[in-house]
Amino acid sequence: MTSNVTIWITALLTLAVYSFLIKDNRAFRLVEKFFVGLGAGYFAAMGVRNIIQIGIRPIMEGQLLPLIPFILGLMAYTRFIKPIAWMTKIPIALIVSIGAALTLRGSVQAQLLNQARGSMLPWTTANNIIIALGTAAVLSYFYFKARSPGPFDGVMTLSSKVARIIMMVAFGIGYTGVLGANIPRTIGQIQLIFGKWIHLIPGF
Predict the structure, then answer these.
(1) Most-buried pick from 72, 77, 183, 187 (CB within 10 A)?
(2) Which pTM value belongs to this model?
(3) How many domains does the chain have?
(4) Sign of torsion over alpha carbons 101, 102, 103, 109
């Protein structure tokens, strides 16, 4: 076995996480709490550093613009002082409204306009035909799923079957992509445990 302390700690923590595959246990819960606590401490330290570097230091150098977010941040803590607790609503309202506006703008651009533009293709290649007909079939499946009987029942039934096939293929590709992205991480942990830690794999 290796004498590297870092590899020992990493391997033991990895085994503790994988022990959840057998059943829930104290080792897994300990590592889970350690991970959450470490993450919370890291982000708290990053927040303090950002306040000092982006807020306090520029203000001490004579810049007045950082005073605005600094004051708004202080106002968020007024909720602990009952007479002026109402002031905490101001920064929260600004954060929610600006965040909602930016999210809505990005969502409309990425999830509506770009996708609509990307599906409006000339029927000159097989790929374009599949994209256009697949998009139309899936949209009709959701928009016309609850419909009254009519002369287009046969077409809508066929369209619904095609839409289900397309969605299953799309979900399968998405799942495969996520799985494929995590396989190299798993291989890396296996190499660390059986190669660098206990040296069962030659070449490590």
Answers:
(1) 72
(2) 0.60
(3) 2
(4) positive
